[in-house]
Amino acid sequence: LETCSIFFLGTGKTYAMAERLTLLDCKYGMFFIAAGGAFMLNTLYHTWKAYTTDAPQSVDEQKKTNKPDLVVIFSGKRKCGKDFVTGLLEERVGAKFDTIRLSAPLKKQYALDHGLDFQELLSDSPYKEQHRRDMILWSETKRKEDPGYFCRLATAEATSPVWVIVDARRTTDIQYFKQLYKTLVVRVEASQETRAARGWVWTDGVDNVESECGLDGYPVDHTIENNGVPQTTESQLQHVIGIISSVYY
Question: Could you read off the pLDDT of 23-38 as tens digits, one per residue?
């Protein structure tokens, strides 16, 4: 079979993607796509292309043979303690899952393009904060071209049955994984007073843009309060630990 059957249910802009898809040669595949989902169409297009093309693939279009049994997606405001919570999770579960930072490939490419220190951009430092706003603008351009770009790049080397995404910031991040895998979406919350004590300072162009506010109010499966009371945080983390452990045992 040398063709790909694509069924579009809808009108308008949906058909613009049909023309784009039919220009590509592929082995096989079938999609049923509802109208009105521009993000879904674009994500499926790039995912489908990565799986079916015979041409040599770039990292962001890798051919992935293994799929995780579960993707745990953490989100939260700056200085809410996502790294602390996911680090605690790794201690309790053991190094059995892939810890994935969606921002890592973003920062690496940004550092290469702009001659910056990649390791410093990964750290929780003033250096990172100095470049945060420009990185946000640069990454938004990339995401508009392909919403799943950084998600695929970040998971290119993941092999474990469980992936833990430690820094989801946009609805498109969560939608990408939800469309492809079984997910558990977790929100880490901390009060402004707690965050301020950890060094958070409200910054225009950072704290009022999508990368920081895009998941405010987004429906999640579980919430963890991380206001500096370790017993409370760990108690609420037990639910996540139990679900991850069920994958292995």
Answer: 333 333 333 344 345 5
Contacts of residue 80, Cβ cutoff 8 Å, sequence gap at least 6: 188, 189, 190, 195, 226
Distance, in Å, from the CA atom of 179 to the CA atom of 198, rounded to the nearest integer, reads 35
The helix (H) or strand (E) run that includes residue 167 is strand 162-168
**Do 63 and 57 touch, CB atoms closer than 8 A?**
yes
Output the CA–CA distances (angstroms, integers) from residue 3 to 28, 30, 57, 122, 152, in the order listed: 6, 9, 20, 43, 25
Say how far apart CA 108 and CA 116 lie, in whole Å: 9
pTM: 0.68
Instruction: State the CB neighbour count (10 A cutoff) for residue 211.
Output: 20
Residue-wise pLDDT for 72-118, tens only, equals 999 999 999 999 999 999 999 986 899 999 988 878 888 888 888 87
Rounded Cα distance between 44 and 232, Å, is 40
Q: Distance between CA 183 and CA 221 in Å, rounded?
A: 9
Q: Helix H segments across the chain?
A: 14-22, 38-52, 82-93, 103-114, 118-122, 126-145, 149-154, 171-180, 192-197, 210-213, 230-248
